[in-house]
Design a protein that fits this description.
By secondary structure, the chain is an alpha/beta fold. The protein contains eight helices and seven strands. Strands 3-2-1-4-5-6-7 form a seven-stranded parallel beta sheet, sandwiched between helices. The model has no long low-confidence stretch (mean pLDDT about 95). The structure holds NADP nicotinamide-adenine-dinucleotide phosphate. The site of NADP nicotinamide-adenine-dinucleotide phosphate has 30 residues, from α1, β2 and α6.
Amino acid sequence: MPISDYRTALVTGANTGMGEAITRMLSAGGVQVYGVARNAAKLEEVADATGMRPIVADISDPAAIEAAVAGLEIDILVNNAGVSATGNILDATAESVDAMIDVNLRAVLHLCRLLAPGMVARNRGHIVNISSIAGTYNFFGHTAYHATKAAIHQVSRQLRNDMLGHKVRVTEICPGRVETEIFGRNLGGSPEDLKRAWEEFYEHYESVTTADIAGAARFALESPEHVNVGLIEIMPTLQVPGGLTFDPSR
Ligand SMILES: NC(=O)c1ccc[n+]([C@@H]2O[C@H](COP(=O)([O-])OP(=O)(O)OC[C@H]3O[C@@H](n4cnc5c(N)ncnc54)[C@H](OP(=O)(O)O)[C@@H]3O)[C@@H](O)[C@H]2O)c1
């Protein structure tokens, strides 16, 4: 089905990275996008380029989420915004654990709670959740991040049961490494941090691009109405999960 069969979309994290790419793809397809993020200036830049309507909000705050979506009829919900952190549970701060749960998981549940009933009532909708291979495989990443992304996998599956009998589809896109700001933000978010992260994580490795992710979302959205693309795992060809690690000490 053409994307333009959907009229509206709400994309979290629409001002950069995958959210920006998905916003551009949806806008080009004729969908009116409402884009959510905290950085108003960056949101405005994407809005100017695409016609997206900016909503400046911090989705770690459930009241801000309610205010952001009040009165909106949304056909496509893209739960994309996410935060991560360096380290693991051994050196985690209370704030970093809460931020990951609040943005990566709690906001997703609240947005589904607020917007899915309208999709069901109108018998038209599509929820796209961006998870991560961190939710599927264990490797040396942040424990709280892995936990929230594993939860998004289960949320995506469970939503299908919640909305059975209606023309509302759910797609989980599960990326490996994608070239975005996320690793630079983990290091502090300054231009120097972004440069350092690029050198460490991207310069010498092949990554998936944000356009690849937008293309995966488009594939799911454009599939015939009777087809629910449930899960797309997408990694760089030269990245694989797996392997066993043994510590030689005892
Ligand atoms: N990049 C990767 O390698 C990779 C791999 C697997 C999965 N993912 C997942 O893919 C998704 C997109 O990540 P990305 O790599 O594109 O990240 P990114 O470039 O760091 O962008 C993150 C986005 O989330 C928004 N955001 C963060 N906290 C927010 C909050 N409290 N309220 C509202 N918006 C908030 C940011 O906008 P503001 O800062 O302006 O609010 C920004 O638009 C995330 O869920 C991430 O976990 C990324």
